[in-house]
């Protein structure tokens, strides 16, 4: 049995810590790769040991190549070839693709070379497509995808970028766990099926939600599609139509308004929370703001001295969830009291919605303030919408306050602050003695 063989989730896996000599080039710490051999089929690990030895040989070759910079050199040569081709007026394509182009274009490429310097080997390689694209592997998929998506990330805050990155990185890490790291050009439909089967096993044995698996599959499909389109890897839709059937997106339930008033807003009920977190909860309960919207209010967007005190939800240093999210919300009841105590906003939690969400939800759970399964801090937004429905607020007014798209064509400037306040006062909570 190979010294690098270990048991994991019913399969034999190769596992080895990256030697210190290569740690700078391979930051994974520990390399794990499935042999795809079930323990039940090979209880002594004989076949798996041979597979692990092959994986180890390939890995050591990769480490040695990384140490001398072969991967970096290959990328540098390819990038230069693309630039040289553009400089001479051509798109960089491989030699095989050049051969398939119309004869007029092929002749134009040779004429451009004839007009340039004699024996210009880099130009010849660029125009005739003689530089192979660098081999992209699964571990490098996210970095390549992120580089291609840079324009679409413009305007996101640091926390929004983190939330965008993490599920994609997690999907790649899970894929490597199942099939190991390999060049993207070697990725097959069979690998995708192995990954799907791994998730199905987890759903059946561990009770993992189907939608959790489908999110991984969806992220991989999108990343591969984008990189495939850019680099012409010839993979085809490896992860297309691989979603697991039977999943359903969980719907957060709302708090009953009476529970909010009698328990969450009961004097002293939230004294165990720090003041910023407590007042954020009060603000959300009364206005239905998303937590990220509330956390990122500033002194400039909190207008307490205006005829109608209100907060302005704006994309300051971050991207709004939708175009309709940008809105002005009057302050009444417990929200007005909270913001009078926090006139500069919540700098402690600015761009840290995930942190305060975890803090508040943990407190509510530990103190018996989550009455039914599925209720969380975000449920207060659903409660806010239910309260507007209960007083029969017009759809246009409700959509404007929720930051939702109104289903009819938009005319005029929409409901005024005074009109919004009128409806909010109908549903306002009683504020605790001390906020």
TrEMBL record:
<feature type="domain" description="Tyr recombinase">
    <location>
        <begin position="250"/>
        <end position="425"/>
    </location>
</feature>
<keyword id="KW-0233">DNA recombination</keyword>
<dbReference type="GO" id="GO:0006310">
    <property type="term" value="P:DNA recombination"/>
</dbReference>
<protein>
    <recommendedName>
        <fullName>Tyr recombinase domain-containing protein</fullName>
    </recommendedName>
</protein>
<dbReference type="InterPro" id="IPR013762">
    <property type="entry name" value="Integrase-like_cat_sf"/>
</dbReference>
<dbReference type="Pfam" id="PF00589">
    <property type="entry name" value="Phage_integrase"/>
</dbReference>
<dbReference type="GO" id="GO:0015074">
    <property type="term" value="P:DNA integration"/>
</dbReference>
<dbReference type="InterPro" id="IPR011010">
    <property type="entry name" value="DNA_brk_join_enz"/>
</dbReference>
<dbReference type="GO" id="GO:0003677">
    <property type="term" value="F:DNA binding"/>
</dbReference>
<dbReference type="InterPro" id="IPR002104">
    <property type="entry name" value="Integrase_catalytic"/>
</dbReference>
